[in-house]
Design brief:
The complex is a heterodimer of chains A (786) and B (162). With 786 residues, chain A is of the alpha+beta class. Among the domains of chain A are: 18-25 and 477-623, 2-Layer Sandwich (Aldehyde Oxidoreductase, domain 4); 368-468 and 627-785, Aldehyde Oxidoreductase, domain 4 (2-Layer Sandwich), CATH 3.30.365.10. A 7-stranded mixed beta sheet of chain A has the order 3-6-1-15-12-13-14, with helices on both faces. Chain A starts with 17 loop residues before the first helix and ends with a helix. The longest helix of chain B has 15 residues, at 143-157. Classes of the chains: A alpha+beta (786), B alpha+beta (162).
C-alpha cells in the first residue's frame, strides 16, 4: 500500500502559471486597473544637459491635470537600487531632478482622467531651459574643463565632491602581480570594448498606486523586489512602512532592470498622493529605452603565462561609462572584479583598477550577469588568444587554470567569498571536447571558400545569491511562511518574485518535497510587503538557492510541528514518525517509521489540531544562506560566416549547464536556450548609437531600429543541445544552485572565438555586425596582398 | 478632443459596439474594453505582443485603426482558447513544451501560431520560424515555441486534431 512515489525534485512538471499565461489571463502590472484611476504621463528632457530656469504648469492645470514638479517632491537623495548596505551605496538622485542630465530624463509628470489628456497636459507645460554642454565619452568626461554633471553626491551619509565626473573608483589588489608577471614567459595585453545594449523586456515599466481610505498606499509595480520598493517609497513619501503595501506580481521580463525601483514608480506614488486618487503610469517603449540600459565596459586585460601553461598574474583595468545616475556602479565593479578573479587561479596574483564615470546618457543597470558577460568576453577571448598563440589546447589550458572545488569564489565582489563545493567544469569541458571533436577542428588558415564555419569555446559562471559565510557589502536573506490547511493542502507565502524562469514552481517543489505532499496541493498565496518578511530581491541568481533555502528552512520547522501534533494524536514519539506522500490518497501522511500501515493524513492531523484548539500548523521565519556557490556554464558554438555578406549564423550549439540538481530540468534548459538567444543578439546585432548633437538615441527609442534576434535567427531545435551536469550542491535546497545569469556569461566569447576560428580575425569589440565583419575581412585581404 | 464614434464588430464571437475616437488603434480599443489578454509591448508594430486574428488573419492590433474594423471579426488569444479546439490545443502545447517564461509574448505568439496552423501550415520548423518571426520573445530563444507549434502541426497531419 505504501508505494514509492516519484520525487518532484528533478521531475519535469508543466509550470503552474502556464495556463494563465497562455490564455492571457495572467495579470501583469500593465493590466492592473482600479476604478476611478487617473493616468500619468511624464515630461522627459529634450536636452542631454540643461538647467530648468522656469516652469509654468498653469495651462496643464486648467486642462484638469494634476502636475508634479521638483517643487512638489521631497528632495531626499537616494539610489534606486538598494541591495547593498547603506554605507556602500552612493546617492545622487531625487524623484524628479532640478537639472536634466540625460536626454529623456523624467523632469515633470502629470495625472489626468485619460491618457490622452495626460499627454496633452504634458505638452501644455511651459519650461525654460538653460542648455548646458553635454559629455558622452568617458575619457572626455574625465578631462579638466569637461562639463560637470554633479558638484556633490553622497556615499552613505557622507557628502562627497565629484571631481572630473568620476563617480566611483574601485581598486583591488591581491597577491603579488609584479612578481607574477616577472615569472611569466609571455605577457599578453589587449583592450576589449563592450557597448551599451537595451534590456528590451517585452513589458515596459509600469506602476499603479492607490491611496487607501486609512491613509496608506497600495502599489502594483514592475518589481524584482517588493520590499526594496516599499522601503524606498516610505523614505521618499515620509510614511511608516506599515502604510505602504507593495503587491507581488508577475511581470513581462526584466533581466535585472527592476532590481532597482524603477524611476516611474516613485513618480506615480507622488502623483497619486497629490491627486488623492489612484494613478497608473506606464512607460511607452520610446520612454523605456531612456530608462535603463546595460553597463558598457572597456577592459584592458594583461596576463602573464608560463611556457607550461600556467597563468601567473592578471591585471584588469576597467572603465565604465554608467550615465547620468548611479544605479550602483560600485558593486558592479566589485562584482566584475569578482567574476574576473574567480574564473582562473592566476597564481593568486590579481589586480583590478576600476573607474566609473558620469556621462550625459541614460543610467545603466544590471542586465543578466552584472558585469559577468562583459568581463567574461574579455577574459575568455584572452584565453583563446593565449591558446592560439602558444598552441595550447583550449580545453587543457582551461582545466589547468580554472577555479574549481576547494577554491575560493567571489560571489558578489571581494567582500562576499565562499569555497566551491560543487563544480561541473571538468565534465563540461571533457565531454564537450569529445562531442564536438574540438581538438581536431580546422585551424583558421586552413579554412577557405565563401562560406566558412568555425568552432569556438568559452566557459563562464555566475554566483547563486550574494550570501557568503561572512556578511559583506550586499544584503542577503529571504523569508517564507508556510501553513498546513485542514484538508492537507499547504499555503506557501513568499516575497520572492519570479521573472519567468519558474522560481515559484521551484519553491513549491521544495515545500512539497519537504512536507511530502503532492505538488498540486501546494498553493502559492498572493503576497505583498505587509504580509511577508523581507527578501532582498530576485537578483544575483538567488531565487532558488536563497529563496528556496528559506522555504526549506520554514518547511522543516512546519514538519517538526506536524510530527509533534501527529505524535500526540497517534500516541507515538515524534522521532518515530515520518512524512510520506500518498498519491492514492491525494495528500501526504504522517506514518510510523518502518510501519507505514499506521498513519494519519496530514489533513486529518491539521483538522484534529483545529478541533482540539491546538492551533494552525504553521511557521514563518527568515533565513540566510552561508554560501554563494557558482553555477557553471560552457558553450561550444559553431558559426557559419558568409564572407560575401558578413552575416554570422549559428548552425549548431552545445551548452553545458551546472545548476547542481535541476529542480525542473525543462525550465533550466529553457533558460539556457533563451540566454543563448540574448547572447547572440549581444554579440552580433545589438547597438545603440547616440546622436551626439542632441544626446538622443539614433533609433529614437523605436524598436524598429534596435535589432534583436527573431525566431528566424535561432538554430533549429535539433541543433541546440543542452546538457545538465551531474552535480550536487551540498549547501543548496535538495542540491540545487542557480542558473539564470550564468546562462549568458560565456555566450559572447564562445561566438567570438568561433568567429576567429572561422576567419582568423579577432574581434575585441561587440557587436560583430555584418558591416564590421566585412570591413575586417577586407582589411585582412588588403594586408595579405601587401 | 474629437467626438467618439461607434463601431460595430464581432469580438470572440460576440457582436460588440465600441465607442472610440476615430484615431484610436484596435489595441487601445480592445484594452479599453477589458480584453487584457491582448498585450501592449511597443505600440509600433514591432514586437507582436498585441497580435489578434482579424477576419482570420494574424494582425498587429496596435497598428490597425479600430474604426477600420467596423463590421469585421476579431479573435483574441483568450477567446480562441475557449472557442476553438485547435487554439486550445496549441495553448496546452505551449505549457507542455516549456514555451513560456515571463509569458508576456505568449498570447500574441499563440495567435500567430494559430494563423499558421489554420492556413495549412505544416510540421516544418523553417516555415514555422518564418511565420512567427514578426513576434518578439526576449526570454525563451524561440526554440521551444517553435517546438510547440511543430508538435500541434504534427498532430494535425496525423489526423489527431480535426
Amino acid at each position: 500500500m505504501n508505494q514509492m512515489n516519484e520525487s518532484v525534485i528533478g521531475k519535469n512538471i508543466p509550470r503552474s502559471d502556464g495556463h494563465a499565461k497562455v490564455t492571457g489571463t495572467m495579470v501583469y502590472p500593465s493590466d492592473v486597473i482600479i476604478p476611478g484611476m487617473m493616468y500619468g504621463a511624464v515630461l522627459r528632457s529634450p536636452h542631454p544637459h540643461a538647467e530648468i530656469v522656469s516652469v509654468d504648469t498653469s495651462e496643464a492645470e486648467r486642462m484638469g491635470a494634476v502636475c508634479l514638479t521638483y517643487a512638489d517632491i521631497n528632495p531626499i537623495m537616494y539610489n534606486e537600487r538598494s541591495v547593498s548596505i547603506p554605507a556602500a551605496t552612493y546617492r545622487d538622485r531625487t524623484v524628479l531632478p532640478s537639472k536634466a542630465r540625460h536626454f529623456g530624463e523624467p523632469l515633470m509628470a502629470v495625472a489626468a482622467d485619460t491618457e490622452e489628456l495626460a499627454h496633452k497636459a504634458v505638452k501644455a507645460i511651459k519650461i525654460e531651459y538653460k542648455v548646458l554642454e553635454a559629455v558622452y565619452d568617458p575619457d572626455e568626461a574625465m578631462k579638466e574643463g569637461a562639463p560637470q554633471l554633479y558638484e556633490n553626491i553622497y556615499l552613505g551619509d557622507n557628502k562627497l565632491t565629484v571631481k572630473n565626473n568620476i563617480g566611483v573608483v574601485r581598486n583591488i589588489d591581491e597577491g603579488d602581480c609584479a612578481g607574477g608577471f616577472a615569472r611569466a614567459d609571455r605577457i599578453f595585453e589587449h583592450t576589449f570594448d563592450l557597448e551599451r545594449i537595451y534590456h528590451n523586456q517585452l513589458e515596459t515599466k509600469c506602476a499603479v498606486c492607490k491611496p487607501e481610505p486609512d491613509g496608506s498606499l497600495t502599489v502594483w509595480a514592475t518589481a524584482q523586489s517588493i520590499h526594496a520598493n516599499r522601503q524606498l517609497l516610505a523614505r521618499i513619501l515620509n510614511m511608516p512602512l506599515s502604510k505602504l503595501n507593495v503587491v507581488r506580481l508577475p511581470f513581462g521580463g526584466a533581466f535585472g532592470s527592476s532590481i532597482q525601483v524603477n524611476t516611474v514608480t516613485p513618480i506615480c506614488a507622488c502623483l497619486a498622493l497629490k491627486a488623492g486618487r489612484p494613478v497608473k503610469l506606464t512607460s511607452a517603449r520610446e520612454e523605456d529605452f531612456y530608462s535603463h540600459q546595460k553597463y558598457p565596459a572597456r577592459f584592458t586585460v594583461k596576463m602573464g603565462v608560463t611556457n607550461d601553461g600556467v597563468i601567473t598574474a592578471a591585471h584588469v583595468k576597467a572603465l565604465i561609462d554608467f550615465g547620468a545616475h548611479q544605479v550602483q556602479p560600485l558593486p558592479f565593479m566589485g562584482c566584475t572584479a569578482g567574476w574576473f578573479a574567480s574564473l582562473y587561479k592566476y597564481d593568486g596574483n590579481i589586480r583590478f583598477d576600476g573607474t566609473a564615470v558620469y556621462t550625459n546618457k541614460t543610467p545603466c543597470c544590471a542586465m543578466q550577469g552584472y558585469g559577468n558577460p562583459q568581463i567574461n568576453f574579455a577574459i575568455e577571448s584572452m584565453i583563446d588568444i593565449i591558446c592560439e598563440e602558444m598552441r595550447f589546447s583550449a580545453v587543457d589550458f582551461r582545466l589547468k587554470n580554472y577555479r574549481g572545488i576547494g577554491d575560493e569564489f567571489w560571489g558578489q565582489g571581494p567582500t562576499i567569498r565562499s569555497i566551491i563545493k560543487s563544480c561541473g567544469v571538468e565534465q563540461s569541458l571533457v565531454e564537450g571536447r569529445k562531442m564536438t571533436d574540438f581538438e581536431n577542428r580546422q585551424r583558421p588558415e586552413d579554412r577557405t571558400g565563401d562560406i566558412r564555419r568555425g568552432l569556438g569555446l568559452a566557459r563562464g559562471f555566475h554566483t547563486s545569491g550574494t550570501a557568503g559565510p561572512k556578511e559583506g557589502e550586499v544584503i542577503d536573506y529571504s523569508s517564507a511562511l508556510i501553513k498546513i490547511n485542514e484538508d492537507g493542502s499547504v499555503d506557501l507565502v513568499t516575497p520572492v518574485t519570479d521573472h519567468g524562469g519558474g522560481t515559484w514552481d521551484a519553491l513549491k517543489k521544495i515545500t512539497a518535497e519537504t512536507l511530502q505532499v503532492p505538488f498540486d496541493m501546494v498553493g502559492l498565496a498572493p503576497a505583498a510587503t505587509t504580509n511577508t518578511g523581507y527578501d532582498v530581491c530576485t537578483h544575483a541568481t538567488r531565487g532558488v538557492y536563497c529563496g528556496g533555502a528559506a522555504v526549506y528552512h520554514v518547511a522543516m520547522k512546519v514538519k517538526e510541528r506536524l510530527l509533534e501534533y501527529a505524535g500526540r494524536l497517534m500516541a507515538e514519539h515524534a522521532y518515530n514518525l515520518e512524512v510520506a506522500r500518498r498519491d492514492e490518497l491525494g495528500q501526504g501522511v504522517v506514518q510510523v517509521k518502518h510501519f507505514p500501515s499506521k498513519f494519519m493524513t496530514i489533513g486529518d492531523i491539521a483538522k484534529q489540531a483545529q478541533i482540539m484548539s491546538w492551533g494552525t500548523i504553521a511557521y514563518t521565519d527568515s533565513y540566510r544562506q552561508r554560501n554563494c556557490p557558482p553555477c557553471f556554464t560552457t558553450h561550444f558554438v559553431e558559426v557559419e560566416i558568409d564572407t560575401r555578406t558578413g552575416v554570422i549564423t549559428v548552425p549548431k550549439v552545445l551548452i553545458f549547464g551546472d545548476c547542481g540538481v535541476a529542480l525542473n530540468p525543462d525550465l533550466v534548459k529553457g533558460q539556457l536556450i533563451g540566454s543563448f538567444n540574448r547572447g547572440f543578439g549581444y554579440t552580433v546585432f545589438e547597438t545603440m548609437p547616440l546622436n551626439e548633437k542632441t544626446g538622443e538615441l539614433m533609433n529614437k527609442g523605436l524598436l524598429t531600429d534596435y535589432k534583436t534576434p527573431t525566431s528566424a535567427e535561432m538554430p533549429k531545435i535539433e541543433d541546440v543541445e543542452v546538457i545538465l551536469c551531474d552535480t550536487y550542491e551540498p549547501s543548496g535546497p535538495y542540491g540545487a544552485k542557480g542558473i539564470g545569469e550564468a546562462a549568458l556569461a560565456s555566450v559572447q566569447a564562445a561566438i567570438a572565438n568561433a568567429v576567429y576560428n572561422a576567419v582568423g580575425i579577432r574581434f575585441y569589440k561587440l557587436p560583430i555586425t555584418p558591416e564590421v565583419l566585412l570591413a575586417a575581412l577586407k582589411k585582412k585581404e588588403q594586408e595579405a596582398a601587401k | 478632443m474629437c467626438d467618439k464614434i461607434k463601431i460595430n464588430l464581432v469580438v470572440n464571437g460576440e457582436p460588440v459596439t465600441f465607442e472610440v475616437q476615430p484615431h484610436v488603434s484596435l489595441l487601445r480599443a480592445l484594452r479599453d474594453n477589458y480584453y487584457y489578454d491582448v498585450k501592449c509591448g511597443c505600440e509600433e508594430g514591432d514586437c507582436g505582443t498585441c497580435t489578434v486574428l482579424l477576419d482570420g488573419i494574424a494582425t498587429k492590433s496596435c497598428i490597425t485603426l479600430a474604426a477600420a474594423c467596423e463590421g469585421h471579426e476579431v479573435w483574441t488569444d483568450k477567446g480562441l482558447g475557449y472557442n476553438d479546439a485547435l487554439a486550445a490545443r496549441l495553448q496546452a502545447a505551449f505549457v507542455e513544451c516549456g514555451s513560456i517564461q515571463c509569458g508576456f509574448c505568449s498570447p500574441g505568439m499563440i495567435v500567430a501560431g494559430v494563423h499558421y496552423l489554420k492556413h495549412g501550415g505544416k510540421a516544418d520548423r523553417r516555415a514555422i520560424k518564418r511565420s512567427i518571426s514578426g513576434n518578439l520573445c526576449r526570454c525563451t530563444g524561440y526554440v521551444k515555441i517553435v517546438d510547440a507549434i511543430y508538435k500541434v502541426a504534427q498532430e494535425i497531419e496525423r489526423g489527431a486534431l480535426a
